[in-house]
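Work package 3, deliverable 3.1, input record:
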Amino acid sequence: MKATRLLCVAMFAAACGPTSADRSALSSQTPAEAAQKAGAIKTSTDPAVNPNAAVMAGFKARVEKYAELHKDLAKGAARQKDNTSAERVHAQKTALAEKTQAARASAKQGDIFTAEMRPVFRRLLAPEMKGEEGRDAKAIIKDDAPAPGTVAFKVNAKYPEKQPKPTMPANLLLNLPPLPEPLEYRVVGQHLLLLDTATDLIVDYILNVITT
Amino acid sequence: MRCLSVIALVLITLPSVASAQDLRLPNKQGSLKFAVIGDSGQPGDGQTAIASQLAKFRTRFPFDFVLMTGDNLYGSERPRDYENKFSVPYKPIIDAGVKFYATLGNHDDAGQTQYKLFNMEGRKYYSFRPKPGVRFFSIDSNYVDDKQLDWLGKELAASGSDWKIAFFHHPLYSSGATHGSADAQRQLLEPMFLKHAVNVAIMGHEHFYERLKPQKGVAYFILGSSAKLRKGDLRKSALTAYGNDSDYAFMLIEIDGDDLHFQTISDKGATLDTGSIGRPKTTTNGK
């Protein structure tokens, strides 16, 4: 495993809690533990030791707050047994999207991906876009890309329903902070979206997060 | 004590084109019978023909359920799309009580997980055990994060000596010119497949049929031509055991004890590929 990845994973592990992937099955330790043993990281959450820890902790709090909002808005609808016909699926999604848009009417770019957060993300993703893995990641992003110009980079806008959602390259995903349901990362072109998969709403985004 | 199974798959395959409507499976009473369709959510002649063949073959091979390898609905996903792209073309077998188990492709909205007829029960990844001895794992290959890997590891570990059949959208190995092997997903999933002795992986994404040579003891199939076809896209390679990119296709599979039999059939009802995967009998490591 590359030292950069170990560093990134460990940094998030320090700020956001340990990762738990069964990749640890290959060795009996988590990537973060491996990085610690390799001496590649500083694990303290003390900002004096790890200056990104506070930034990451803030990000975690913001996405969890969004997840709580989603839970509140979806309450009473998501798990109903009769909520499973195509009509009901669509009606529920539409209603939830409208409620979410209303609840976040004043939301704007940078509310979750704050100004302090953006350079951290760029730094985390940059090494993963190099070398063989980087070439694969670029191919994946291009492979499943939506048609140019179809995605509106606007908070609370809907991801276009007729466009495919680009597959998230695994090497990028594993270097980013984990997200609670229903949030997911997606890379469109060079830009990173934070997507609410329950409503297909764009929650936030970072432009030009990937440099070529 | 737990049973240990040795993974040493033996493939006995007989690719051939046989006469239409020729059932080549043992069709034994009590065996597990199912079908597979992939990249199936596109209305048109291909989808109509495959749906029709599924219904015809089911009269002689009464499969209980159908696996869907993703891209279950192309384009918009309004209620009428669920009808036009799924419930209307497959109505005969849906009405006959056949269940569908879907996995998400890159064209699929997460809302599909709530749709009753896809049996995902709100989950982007899930497992099910239709009968003792066989477990299926639907993986969301669009988004392989730590949480899903953690879940998969636990599910696989808990499945003991069952047949382990994974199905998901992005092919870990592929000879396709358009997409090719999903290397990033393979780096994460393959070690888990090997550690937990997954027997078979069935994938989609490529709009053709390819049976790969077993890779590290795992049998891989790509079936993504049940409604879309990308003619000429399969560049047969050292990975390829058999491939077809000129016909729409679906699969019928039968598991009888330690034997899995498969038959891949075209939209015209012709057999494209057939064979068996043998699994060594489990041995008890108990005292």
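Helices of chain A lie at 3-16, 31-37, 52-74, 86-103, 117-125, 131-143, 170-173.
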